[in-house]
Amino acid sequence: MSNPTLRTDRVRMLGLIYKNPSISREEFDRYWLEHHSQLFLSLDIVKKNLLKYEQLHINQQTKDLQSLGAALIECDGVAIIEAESYEKLLELFNDAQFKAIVEPDEEKFLDRSKTRSVPLDFAAFINK
């Protein structure tokens, strides 16, 4: 067995996101999944700079997992993006098209003031 090391060819950014309080959970999930994802994926900078984009929607039926003794984060969703470097991620977030198209669209379904981001270096131990 080899010694685990963090990957140097990829980085990830995890975003904890919260829905806009003016919409329902169902509207939030549907809009994020069906509309926003397609808008985001249509940008040239996304196609050029990202290796992975994942949405993680909170499963409302498993709230009882809290009984396992782990406190649950009360966010409405998680987004994970992956790129070759943090510079590629910064280039994405500073892109004029991103700022003109994606950010205003996020206002429709997110409470951007509550969004929290976590930059991540990672090691994958199981990756089937």
UniProtKB/TrEMBL annotation:
Gene Ontology molecular-function annotations: oxidoreductase activity
Domain EthD: 20-113
UniProt superkingdom: Eukaryota
Pfam families: EthD
UniProt family annotation: Belongs to the tpcK family.
Protein name: EthD domain-containing protein
Organism: Tetrapyrgos nigripes
